């Protein structure tokens, strides 16, 4: 029996505003409890919401970014509605959100499906994106009073853009690719800091399964997917759970489930058991949000780079078309604005070595960052420095093996990360003088008669041993290409 | 329609109002009388009439005013929390929340 | 000495100091404790404000007509000093960390706050019997209600304790108690007066406004209360809203007109629906006489129709409870307000705290509101009510094509006995029939004393203007008050 997995993702993106969506309290993360909750955020009697202009601007940016700069999907008039429910960390007893008329309708995000160079592009359509306010937090540990939870409302009122995808993903891997692409997009256009540990980018996944050709199955919503890794594991667990349930003759019940990373399983949330009736209605404290054509056009112009809206996708196309990079390289270099910026800096200081720069950034640099668990912005080697290293590879000063050594010294901060200074100080220049290399080769040929005889008797592989010997004799500094070439020439003599 | 016990329970739960058993009948009766009053709306022909949410938009287009993004709230946590029934270290306390 | 004008003349002439006036008001409040008009009095706070006012007088401040004049606030406006309860057990001990915009503005104008005034719980009621802190007595007959929900605000003026007070009007809560206690009040155009710091009942209907003896006093206080407030998203900042009400009012009353034609050019619309069955004979007669006075002095009377007057009741009793049910969700016993002593878990704690903290009328409205917004009923009730609301607003605009002001009764009857109607909430709702339409449309409406019934209970004339026409309404009322003395009469025993 073949099962089809159907996944839709709802993402809560915290907008990178200075102040809250409806109050002038700071949105900074990590302050002592309730020191960034104003009287409005605490919903004290008599308080009223006043909308933050920047949050609207960010929503417009997003609308343009997910639609190739077209403006029709940004609502000229959208409505704030109250979503009524009681929860201890929801101070007003309702969340100000958008319901019937959201600020953005439609749009799409392109994701890469498949591995490496064989990856293809799949378009995931968006249902909508709407503005709303975040809730506070309930803390369950570290309290002296027994049997209680503590409520911290610092987060309450932080502006959110909730982005809802169509249920168009067909595997956990696709869901993760979508989440990563969306994360890349919102950080690229600067509307979110993307910090998942701090909850700036939170995904819920709606997962259902069906036998191919059958109507959509009942879905479960998985909450608390605060890392890409957990997302993949949680969805895979949930898919297995649903398939096993159905195959055992059971039925999937629509419910909200929480992913427990420690146990690697999802479980039903107790607090969300009742079918919710949110009693949405237009918030009488807020008038309709009007967005003018002019405002959209001003934002659009501010987002243009080289005549197109500056999003990861447009840069990807630019890297493929103008820089002749592979789709795979372009995809990796546009995973964040930091990577793209790094590439352009390296490209410029390397003497326009696009492919080499891409290889180095996506290869050595990326794996070094991964190993040490640091972000590109914190990398000890920047794009410009890397480009100057690449330049020395391109001009033959360094073999790629030597370049890796130099890179290691740069990473450690030697000579302020200056490749040339390290090459000079450590005498790591590659030997390209044919005369010098010939001397070495003559010496090697003389000492390795056996290998020479083998090669001459038709064993082509024997040349590898000779190359190895020559490289060793030159302390790795000889240009391997030249060694190969000269060896063959001499052996043919 | 009348406000039967099931409806009253459902609505009271949505509104998070505990209704003691001895008040169910009388409250239900009052609610039913109220519904008779508001049911007068059902016969009104409102075809093509847009709902009016903000009174002045009856005569002119009203739009939301936006505030500049400045974080300038003066927050006096002590004053803000002075009415809280139960607190600890700047947190509002509630009976244990289960998720 | 009853009016603000009397008080400010005395202050300007140094016949009285602000401290003396405040002390006198506090003493009167204590003497009239039986009325139950005041919920919170704090002499120290009041006298500190009075001393500050006297300091300004000493410093030579002369451009503040309200400086040193006592006022009291409906307990729906939050104050830092005095507790703010909204007439509810839920907020029995609530102290706000900030002042309402209205409170702030009136203090800035120099007014001295004498205390906080009783009202129906969360302003829900027409008799002030829904206050958790007891009913308020009508100074004209202490066995009767003063009207509501701003009952304490009305009684305090009528009894001569303060010359002015603040109130709020969601469906008639300024106009109806003013009518029942023989004073003047105006509910301004929706959005004129900031709602920031006014504990919300129904956000799209709530408007603060002044109560006083005269239209002139109302103009002065409203001018100080009103104006754009960036903390309220529905606060108006249009050109029309920026015009000073006091200046426009002064301009209009300055023009001397020959007697008998004081109202020349004024077209008064009289809606036939306001004089239908249910209107008491006395009220009908007094209101008709008042309109006759306008006519006798040059006004033209036009018959108009507000055909959906009766529908304003069901429309209002869907919209107001819907908004209220949501506005009152913040009272969960977590950050402020009453918390039950016994509960099983957090949800039970919230449900029990709300059950104990809210009174019966508030609960009914919360339940009604939750019901009309709930799944499957939203379109039939809430949206339908909002559509009817537009039709009602359109009816007024049609009417204003043929008249400048609309006049009629404020309420069908004069003040009823305490307890008389409290067993039948729906019967009480029907009493709001003449005030609800104005609230739904967001129009300004006034109540002006126009005589007494056979039991010497006050009757109010309602004056309704188009949006932003407050100064014209106040000017018409002022000229009427120059021709009559209903507004100057006071109940016996509280002179």
List the keywords.
heterotrimer, B: 99 residues, alpha+beta, flat, C: 495 residues, alpha/beta, Amidase signature (AS) enzymes, eight-stranded mixed sheet, three-stranded mixed sheet, 17 helices
Structure commentary:
- The complex is a heterotrimer of chains A (493), B (99) and C (495).
- Chain A is α+β, with helices and mostly antiparallel strands.
- Chain A has three domains: 3-290, no CATH class; 314-426, no CATH class; 434-492, Arc Repressor Mutant, subunit A (Orthogonal Bundle), CATH 1.10.10.410.
- Helix content of chain A is 38%, strand content 20%.
- Chain A has helices spanning 53-65, 172-188, 228-247, 293-302, 312-321, 327-333, 337-349, 354-372, 383-394, 400-411, 419-426, 434-447, 449-456, 462-473, 480-492, and strands spanning 3-14, 51-52, 77-78, 80-84, 94-98, 104-105, 108-113, 120-133, 137-139, 148-152, 159-165, 201-211, 220-225, 256-260, 265-268, 281-282, 289-290, 304-305, 308-309.
- In chain A, a hairpin with an 8-residue loop joins β9 (137-139) and β10 (148-152).
- The relative contact order of chain A is 0.10.
- Chain B has 99 residues and is an alpha+beta fold.
- Chain B has a domain at 5-42.
- In chain B, 32% of the residues lie in helices and 9% in strands.
- Chain B has a two-stranded antiparallel sheet.
- In chain B, a hairpin with a 2-residue loop joins β2 (87-88) and β3 (91-95).
- The longest helix of chain B has 18 residues, at 21-38.
- In chain C, 40% of the residues lie in helices and 12% in strands.
- The model of chain C has no long low-confidence stretch (mean pLDDT 96).
- In chain C, β2 (70-74), α4 (101-108) and β3 (112-117) form a beta-alpha-beta unit.
- With 495 residues, chain C is α/β, with parallel strands linked by helices.
- In chain C, α9 (245-254) packs across α17 (470-483) and α11 (312-327) crosses α14.
- The termini of chain C are close together.
- In chain C, the strands form two sheets. Chain C has an eight-stranded mixed β-sheet with strand order 4-6-5-10-11-9-7-8.
- Chain C has a domain at 4-258 and 470-488: Amidase signature (AS) domain (Amidase signature (AS) enzymes), CATH 3.90.1300.
- The chains are: A alpha+beta (493), B alpha+beta (99), C alpha/beta (495).
- The interface between B and C is large, with 57 and 74 residues.
- β2 of chain A pairs parallel with β1 of chain B, so a sheet runs across the interface.
């Amino acid at each position: 029996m073949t099962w089809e997995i159907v996944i839709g993702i709802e993402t809560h993106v915290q907008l990178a505003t200075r102040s809250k969506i409806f109050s002038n309290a700071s949105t900074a993360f990590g302050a002592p409890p309730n020191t960034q909750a104003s009287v409005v955020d605490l919903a004290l009697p008599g308080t009223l919401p006043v909308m933050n202009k920047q949050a609207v601007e960010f929503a417009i940016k997003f609308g343009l970014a997910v639609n190739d700069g077209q403006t029709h999907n940004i609502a000229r008039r959208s409505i704030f509605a109250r979503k009524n429910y009681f929860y201890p960390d929801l101070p007003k007893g309702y969340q100000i959100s958008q319901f019937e008329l959201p600020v953005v309708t439609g749009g799409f995000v392109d994701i890469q499906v498949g591995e490496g160079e064989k990856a293809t592009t799949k378009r995931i359509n968006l249902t909508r994106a709407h503005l709303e306010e975040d809730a506070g937090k309930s803390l369950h540990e570290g309290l002296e009073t027994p049997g209680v939870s503590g409520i911290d409302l610092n987060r309450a009122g932080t502006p959110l853009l909730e982005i809802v995808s169509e249920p168009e993903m067909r595997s956990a891997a696709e869901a993760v690719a979508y989440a990563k692409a969306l994360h890349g997009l919102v950080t690229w256009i600067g509307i979110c800091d993307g910090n998942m540990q701090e909850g700036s980018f939170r995904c819920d996944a709606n997962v259902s399964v069906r036998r191919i050709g059958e109507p959509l199955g009942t879905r479960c919503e998985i909450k608390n997917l605060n890392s890409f890794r957990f997302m993949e594991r949680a969805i895979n667990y949930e898919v297995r759970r649903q398939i096993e349930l159905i195959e055992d003759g059971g039925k999937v019940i629509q419910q909200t489930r929480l992913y427990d990373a420690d146990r690697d399983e999802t479980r039903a949330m107790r607090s969300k058991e009742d079918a919710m009736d949110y009693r949405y209605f237009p918030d009488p404290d807020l008038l309709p949000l009007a967005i003018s054509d002019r405002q959209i056009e001003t934002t659009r112009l501010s987002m243009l780079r080289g005549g197109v809206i500056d999003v990861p996708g447009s840069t990807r196309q630019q890297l493929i078309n103008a820089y002749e990079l592979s789709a795979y390289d372009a995809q990796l270099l546009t995973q964040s604005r930091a990577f793209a910026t790094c590439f352009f800096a390296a490209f410029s200081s390397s003497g326009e070595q696009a492919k080499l720069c891409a290889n180095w950034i996506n290869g050595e640099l990326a794996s070094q960052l991964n190993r040490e668990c640091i972000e590109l912005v914190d990398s000890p080697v920047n794009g410009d420095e890397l480009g100057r290293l690449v330049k020395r590879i391109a001009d033959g000063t360094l073999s790629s093996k030597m370049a890796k050594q130099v890179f290691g010294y740069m990473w450690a901060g030697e000579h302020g990360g200056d490749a040339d200074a390290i090459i000079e100080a450590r005498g790591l220049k590659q030997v390209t003088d044919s005369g010098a290399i010939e001397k070495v080769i003559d010496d090697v040929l003389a000492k390795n008669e056996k290998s020479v005889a083998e090669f001459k008797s038709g064993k082509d592989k024997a040349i590898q041993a000779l190359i190895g010997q020559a490289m060793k004799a030159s302390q790795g500094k000889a240009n391997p290409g030249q060694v190969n070439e000269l060896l063959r020439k001499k052996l043919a003599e | 329609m009348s406000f039967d016990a099931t409806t009253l329970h459902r609505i009271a739960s949505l509104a998070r109002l505990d209704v003691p058993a001895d008040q169910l009948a009388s409250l239900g009766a009052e609610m039913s009388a109220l519904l008779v009053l508001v049911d007068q709306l059902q016969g009104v022909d409102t075809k093509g009439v847009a709902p009016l949410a903000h009174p002045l938009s009856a005569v002119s287009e009203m739009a939301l005013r936006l505030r500049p993004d400045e974080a300038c709230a003066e927050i006096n946590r002590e004053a803000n929390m002075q009415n809280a029934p139960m607190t600890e270290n700047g947190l509002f306390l509630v009976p244990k929340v289960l998720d | 000495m009853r009016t603000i004008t009397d008080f400010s003349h005395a202050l300007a002439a140094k016949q009285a100091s602000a401290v003396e006036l405040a002390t006198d008001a506090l003493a009167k409040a204590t003497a009239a404790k039986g009325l139950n008009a005041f919920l919170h009095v704090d002499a120290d706070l009041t006298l500190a404000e009075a001393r500050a006012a006297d300091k300004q007088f000493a410093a030579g401040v002369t451009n503040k007509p309200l400086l040193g004049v006592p006022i009291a606030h409906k307990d729906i406006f939050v104050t830092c000093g005095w507790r703010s309860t909204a007439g509810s057990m839920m907020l029995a001990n609530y102290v706000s960390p900030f002042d309402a915009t209205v409170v702030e503005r009136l203090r800035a104008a120099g007014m001295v706050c004498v205390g906080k005034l009783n009202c129906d719980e969360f302003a829900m009621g027409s008799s002030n019997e829904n206050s958790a802190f007891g009913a308020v007595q009508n100074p004209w007959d202490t066995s009767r209600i003063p009207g509501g929900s701003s009952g304490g605000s009305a009684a305090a003026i009528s009894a001569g304790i303060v010359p002015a007070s603040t109130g709020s009007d969601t469906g008639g809560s300024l106009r109806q108690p003013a009518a029942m206690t023989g004073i003047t009040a105006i509910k301004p155009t929706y959005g004129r007066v900031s709602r920031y710091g006014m504990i919300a009942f129904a956000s799209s209907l709530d408007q603060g406004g002044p109560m006083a003896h005269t239209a002139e006093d109302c103009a002065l206080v409203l001018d100080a209360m009103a104006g754009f407030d960036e903390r309220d998203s529905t606060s108006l900042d249009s050109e029309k809203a920026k015009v000073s009400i006091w200046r426009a009012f002064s301009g209009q009353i300055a023009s001397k007109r020959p007697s008998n034609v004081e109202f020349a050019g004024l077209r008064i619309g009289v809606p036939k629906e306001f004089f239908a069955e249910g209107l008491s004979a006395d009220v009908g007669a007094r209101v008709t006489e008042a309109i006759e006075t306008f006519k006798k002095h040059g006004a033209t009377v036009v018959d108009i129709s507000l055909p959906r007057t009766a529908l304003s009741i069901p429309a209002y009793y869907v919209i107001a409870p819907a908004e209220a049910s949501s506005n009152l969700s913040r009272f969960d016993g977590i950050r402020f307000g009453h918390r039950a002593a016994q509960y099983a878990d957090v949800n039970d704690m919230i449900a029990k705290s709300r059950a104990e903290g809210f009174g019966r009328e508030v609960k009914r409205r919360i339940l009604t509101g939750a019901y009309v917004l709930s799944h499957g009923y939203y379109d039939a009730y809430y949206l339908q009510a909002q559509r009817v609301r537009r039709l009602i607003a359109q009816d007024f605009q049609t009417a204003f094509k043929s008249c400048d002001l609309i006049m009629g009764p404020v309420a069908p009857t004069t003040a009823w006995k305490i307890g008389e109607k409290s067993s039948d909430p729906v019967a009480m709702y029907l009493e709001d029939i003449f005030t609800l339409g104005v609230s739904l449309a967001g129009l300004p409406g006034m109540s002006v004393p126009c005589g007494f019934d056979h039991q010497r209970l006050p009757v109010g004339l309602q004056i309704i203007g188009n949006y932003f026409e407050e100064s014209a309404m106040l000017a018409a009322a002022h000229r009427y008050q120059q021709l009559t003395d209903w507004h100057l009469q006071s109940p016996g025993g509280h002179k």
